[in-house]
Amino acid sequence: MTIEVLKTNYEDLPIRAGVERKDRKMLAELMGQALASTYVLYHKTHAFHWNVTGPLFYSVHKLTDDQYNDLAEAIDDIAERIRAIGVVAPTGLKRYIKESRVDDYTDVDDAVAMVLQLGKDHQEVAAQLREAVKEAEKVDDVYTADLLTARIGAHEEASWMLNSLIVQ
Ligand SMILES: [Fe+2]
Asked: C-alpha angle with apex 128: 73 to 48, nearest 5 degrees?
């Protein structure tokens, strides 16, 4: 049984869960897309953390430190939830960039523009997660709904904190 459970082909995975296989596959796809967005945002947050300059340097450098650590944990939690419902976690940076709702990093040299972009990206991921939560609730996957709902809160908080740095 243990060996069966470790198989990475969900078609063969004899998982007995309250959620139907087709619904688990659908949720895994939505979580995979959320994982892609989270991964791209993680990288962008790190990039701005490294390269920010100017009067906002310290505030942005410190805040993005907290935020990329939170995103790193979220990446792991979402990927492991995909595994827990019997599906292979999507991998590959090209795939993430393709599936992400957040645009990949491009050069930005102004701290305010960095903050605005990250704030908008967090809202975008929150909106994406809200759609996934609705689907998880429809098929009664309460754990997935709970995990993703918590992530909505984290993204909205991140967006608030970023925007608060630049309010005049
Ligand atoms: Fe750092």
From this structure: 55
In order of 30, 55, 115, 126, 162, the CA distances from 167 in angstroms are 34, 14, 11, 21, 9
Tell me how far the alpha carbon of residue 163 lies from the centroid of ligand 1, in angstroms: 20
Domains of the chain: 20-166 (1.20.1260.10)
Measured in Å, residue 139 CA sits from the centre of ligand 1 at 40
Report the chain's terminal Cα–Cα distance, integer Å: 60
pLDDT tens for residues 27-62?
Answer: 999 999 999 999 999 999 999 999 999 999 999 999
- Cα-to-centroid distance, 91 and ligand 1 (Å): 24
Distance 161 CA to ligand 1 centre (A): 18
Query: How many angstroms is it from 143 CA to the middle of ligand 1?
Result: 32
Closest by CA to 64, choosing from 40, 48, 51, is 48
Provide the whole-model pTM.
0.90
